[in-house]
Amino acid sequence: MGFRSALTTSLLLASNVAAVDPIVMKGSKFFTKSGDQFFIKGVAYQQEAGGGPGGSSSNSNKYVDPLSDATICKRDVPLLEKLGVNTIRTYAIDPKADHSECMSMLDKAGIYVVADLGEPALSINRDSPAWNTKLFDRYKGVVDNLGKYDNVIGFFAGNEVTNNNTNTGASAFVKAATRDVKKYISDKIGNGGRWMGVGYAANDDAEIRANMAQYFNCGEQEQAIDFWGYNIYSWCGKSSFTESGYDVQVKFFSNFSVPVFFAEYGCNSAGADGRLWDETTALYSNQMSGVFSGGIAYMFHEEENDYGLVKVSGNSATPMKNFKVLESKLADVKPSSTSMAAYNPTNSPAACPAISNNWKASEVLPPTPDNSLCDCMYNSLSCVPADDLAEKDFGDIFGYVCSHDASACAGIKQDPKTGVFGPYSMCSPKQQLAHVLNTYYTNQHSSSDACSFDGAAKVVSSPSSDSSCKSSLAKANSAVAVAATATAGSASTASTGETSESSENAAAPASVRMTPFVTMGDMAVSLYVLVAMGAGAGMVLL
After folding, report:
1. Taking a C-beta distance cutoff of 8 angstroms, is the pair 500, 506 a contact?
2. How far apart are CA 401 and CA 377, in angstroms?
3. Active-site residue identified among 119, 160, 279, 391
4. pLDDT tens for each residue of 378-425
5. Quick check: is 302 catalytic?
6. Is 363 tagged catalytic?
7. Which residue among 63, 162, 440, 529 sits deepest, i.e. has the most Cβ atoms within 10 Å of its Cβ?
């Protein structure tokens, strides 16, 4: 049975035994499939997640999959029921693990899941953003794993990837991920499957929050978010609807065309008063429920950041004072609702924000990662990295080639501000390096010393000429030519400030000593991005 048929069948089978009614989106609201408006009453559920205001964002941070251990779920699901939540948010799950027991327990308890697609060591990084085949494979794996469960509302393609006005370009990569995961879901489930959304969880930064929300909601809706998650901690202690700025948020999102909810909330800096959870009452009141579809309290597990509701020790889990207060608040909320049949949405997608000092992400997005194209490209090359070349050394060669022959690196360019992306910018670091080496080698008229780099590169005597690759490579080569034109004259020698040698006489010496730029292949490619975006002469390699 093909994947599409298998996944569609599993989705339909799950529907027959499910305790929950699948969630669908209409306009700016969520509804159950039977037509009742749905408000998220949620809690963040993951230990060592790396999320939240006190969490670590280290890429070396390991994670504990919260839905793969049935023993833990048996301990915690009754507490989730007691708390009164109908949704949990997970920050990282193992796409190869079995989640059936935990998902079944949650389903029977009437609890839905919103899952982040990344994990600490494999997600879109704001400091060196990329959208590539490795990441797409991870994201598809999460969709494949959780997509068969009816109590999955959808997925977050990113969490606070852009968090201030210095890294807004990273949003282009997250929006590209949103586009591609949405299409993947659509292609796999077809017309017989159920709706699952793809959204983004943003932080609350006054300088960029309007641009962020508009950017992810604008343009072709095949590329736009299905829902908007907002991580907000502005209501602390004995605050109010206006003091917290919630009134400003309601006004801004009143014209938003997709559902909006708090992806994290729950300030814990109220001193002796503790966490009063008055913002919960406000969130589901008539002041907000017409615009916001609820929220997800941060967080279930007590950790060093002191945001937890439950103290976990071994096999025991004990509700804390904050748990009991939130439980009482959630029990009292009764948001005003409408039926799906009576609701006629009128809001339209926002206009895309203009490029400015506070926004540097174009409407043009990075290409869809394509493993077959990357493989075709690599197998067709005459000059590739040596078999024993380590990724930590990729930066040396990227640095030399891209500063001496910008055209050789056009195929891997990533410039979110101008919207210029090379067709191979989504390939693996090794494949990108191979493309750069081969183009440089070709530009040097296949001179023997142009594919040496002191043994870091090698000549392939018989490259593949697979006829099935011909069309895709021709299209990619045309895209490289466009990117090369866009970058012409923008690169210069990295650390010396000297004018770049022409491609006619810039052959690399047999032995070249260069200062490493970074120690990871994924980040090494960022060197060319810096050069192409105007770091230019005098840039020092770290």
Report:
1. yes
2. 19
3. 160
4. 999 999 999 999 999 999 899 999 999 999 999 999 999 999 999 999
5. no
6. no
7. 162
Query: CA geometry: angle at 16 spanning 15 and 20, to 5°?
Result: 55
Catalytic residue among 264, 279, 302, 391: 264
Q: What are phi and psi of 513, to 5 degrees?
A: -105, 120
Query: Could you tell me if 436 and 408 are in contact, meaning their C-beta atoms sit under 8 angstroms apart?
Result: yes
**Radius of gyration of the chain from its Cα atoms, rounded to whole angstroms:** 25
Q: Are strands 197-202 and 227-232 parallel, antiparallel or unpaired?
A: parallel
pTM score above 0.85:
yes
Apex 366 CA angle, 364 and 367, nearest 5:
115
- Nearest alpha-carbon partner for 159 in 150, 170, 149: 170
Residues in the chain: 542
Please say whether the beta carbons of 403 and 531 come within 8 A.
yes
Q: Which domains does the chain have, with CATH numbers?
A: 3-332 (3.20.20.80), 371-532 (1.20.58.1040)
Six token digits for residue 232: 């907000």
Edge-to-edge strand list for the sheet holding 23-26: 23-26, 29-32, 37-38
3-state secondary structure of 356: strand
Rounded Cα distance between 424 and 411, Å, is 6
